[in-house]
Structure formats: structure tokens, C-alpha cells
Amino acid sequence: MRKILILGDIIAMLLITLIGFATHRELNTSFTIRMSALFFPLLIAWFLLAPWFGLFQQEITPNPKHLWRPALAMIFAAPLAVVLRGFILNTTIIPIFAVALGATSALGMIVWRAFWYWISKRI
User: Fold this and answer.
1) How many domains does the chain have?
2) For tag attachment on the chain, is the N or C end more exposed, with fewer CB atoms within 10 Å?
3) Vertex 5, ends 116 and 98: CA angle to 5°?
4) Phi/psi-derived region of residue 28, left when phi > 0, alpha when psi is between -120 and 50, beta in every other case
5) pLDDT of the chain along its 123 residues, tens only?
6) Whole domain around residue 21: which residue ranges?
7) How many Å apart are CA 47 and CA 25, to the nearest integer?
8) Is the pTM of this model over 0.70?
């Protein structure tokens, strides 16, 4: 079950990244490096912080009362990801981008984790 949850987190972040680039009309192969420069730092930041928020513990993951945890973890992970992205692309770090990434990613993770709670109740 934990492996499915981790795989779902990865897929959710990939979809969040793709949707973000699509909303800016930058969803083609010429933006692959920029997408990767956001996706992989986001993954790293998420998997560094998620265990601290208990997001892979059996007592927490099947409980809908803890849906705030993935949102809070992503709000902290997004600024770290933006800083890492800035270093990778050798570009400026824009604070509003960190806020937007944090908000949209937090929403995406809540949607995914809510779906996970629903799935875990059925199994």
C-alpha cells in the first residue's frame, strides 16, 4: 500500500507540473528541461519533508482528518523546490512563483490524498 501511495504522489506532482506548464501554453518538448528542472526539485523537496509530516505512516494516511498534512508539507516543499530550480536553471528566484506553486501543488496533493483515502476505504 505504501508503494502505491508513493507512486501516486509522484504521479500527482507530475500532473501538477504538466497542468502548470499547460496553463502557460508551454507544454511541448522544447520545455522539457524547464519542466524537469521544476518536477525533480519538487519531488526531492516533497520526499525530504513528507516523512516529517507523517505522510507515509499507517496511522495517518487512511484518516481524512489529516488532509491538512499534505497541504502543509507542500507549502513548505514548494519554496525549496523553487530555490533548487533557480540553481539548476541559473535564474532568479521569484517569490510569487513559490507561492503559486505551493498553493496549486497543495491543492493537487489534497485532491490526490483524498482520492487515496477513498481508495483505502474500499480495499
Assistant:
1) 1
2) C
3) 90
4) beta
5) 789 899 999 999 999 999 998 998 877 777 788 889 999 999 999 999 999 999 998 877 777 889 899 999 999 999 999 999 999 999 999 999 999 999 999 999 999 999 988 888 887
6) 2-122
7) 28
8) yes
